[in-house]
Amino acid sequence: METSLLAAASVAARATVASPCSRPVSLRSDVARAAVRCRSAATKNVQGSVLLTLDDELLSSAEVIQWESGKSINAIAAAQGIRIRRRCRPRYPSEGVGADRAVPGSILEQIVWDKEVEVSQRKAKAPLRKVEDSAARAPPPRDFAAALHAASQRNDGLPALIAEVKKASPTRGLLREEFNPVEIAHTYEKNGAACLSILTDEKHFLGSFENLETVRNSGLNCPLLCKDFIIDIWQIYYARSKGADAVLLIAAVLPDLDIKYMLRVCRSLGMTALVEVHDLRELDRVLKIDGAQLIGINNRSLGTFEVDTANTNMLLEKRGDIIRKKKIMVVSESGLFTPDDVAYVQNAGVSAVLVGESLLTQEDPGQAIAGLFGKELLH
Ligand SMILES: O=C(O)c1ccccc1NCC(=O)[C@H](O)[C@H](O)COP(=O)(O)O
């Protein structure tokens, strides 16, 4: 009996079927969970029948029904209210016909479709087994959530800062001509950032895994969030292998079972997951999933991509009680520019803020931190 989730995930990944769009998205998760309990059975029959016979408390009947129904990823996701569709790998025709065919409905959908291509190319070069080995050799992870908590404590309850290292964004274009990620990271840390968020998406944010790795190896103490668009557990292992301590899981992109499974993979690697929501439906989904320790409320609308910090306030007014009961930390993300913005989300009940643009567009992004908070932060 194999009880290591790491090994289980490896079994699961090797069991990935040909066309993700024509199968339940949960297949890999289900096989992995089966593998946690009974590796030999899972490896013997990766196509699913084992799921129906395994006495595994992790598989609910709903999950089995989902498997049996043979619904596509997009049908399962749509049933959960997920608006971001998956296109599937380019060699497979996309779902839908006519106007629906291969036309992304939003910036985020375009990013996710591009990510599918990127991840399949990266996986071809570095299969999961190899990336798992590199992850196991990486310097041990740092406790991202604990660093946020400690920073807030030493700053009299001010929200802790996750400062973002981002050169460009799809909505704002180039944020900074002179972009030295290591310099920016160090000035952030010196000026009181608790953690850093490093963009690794190349196509839309001009980030890179090289930036993540170089920042990690530059003698910095802050834990690092790999800010990318995760659609596959391979990316979590890869992020760890490059020194990430945390990853972002976006509820607008990932069905519940994938979030559940990815949270377990993160735990097995000693990483923190920042689970991001944009609206009440996503927040309610995430609150039903055991194990989310850190929830990010993004103030950027997925419809218009405009930012409005009232989103944080509105969601915490509605679900703050449950969040506090579950001792979940909340991060307000996007669109924070002034001390009033920070005070507003602090009063709403957040433990941390994730800030990029307002720091990066100033000459010294580190010194800009005092301007954002209205005072210098202790570090
Ligand atoms: O920033 C964008 O244009 C964007 C577009 C589509 C998906 C995600 C996007 N941004 C990611 C983020 O959430 C932000 O980088 C992060 O919250 C910091 O926001 P800001 O302080 O407003 O730069």
From TrEMBL:
Signal peptide annotation: none
Keyword Amino-acid biosynthesis attributed: yes
SUPFAM superfamilies: Ribulose-phoshate binding barrel
Gene Ontology terms: biological process: L-tryptophan biosynthetic process
Keyword hit for 4Fe-4S: no
UniProt KW keywords: Amino-acid biosynthesis, Aromatic amino acid biosynthesis, Decarboxylase, Lyase, Tryptophan biosynthesis
Pathway: Amino-acid biosynthesis; L-tryptophan biosynthesis; L-tryptophan from chorismate: step 4/5
Name of the molecule in the record: indole-3-glycerol-phosphate synthase
